[in-house]
Give the backbone structure.
Amino acid sequence: MLSCHQATRLASDAQERPLTFKEKVSLKIHTMMCSGCRNFESSMNTLRKAMQGFASGDHKDITNNNTKKTMKKHE
Ligand SMILES: [Zn+2]
């Protein structure tokens, strides 16, 4: 049985590398029994989806910042 610390560590590792089968099972069992880590894992997944949207070109904030910088150069 994982501790909450280990479970959240695995959930964040899962964003960066594929978990081993054993790690996946351990994390799954922990999140089934622990609502805190279940929420953590689900917010990690939401964050990952947001980052994927960001990486695929949907980043209006950066575009706006660049536009502002460009406009300043022209002043
Ligand atoms: Zn936990």
Q: What stands out?
A: The chain has one domain: 4-74.
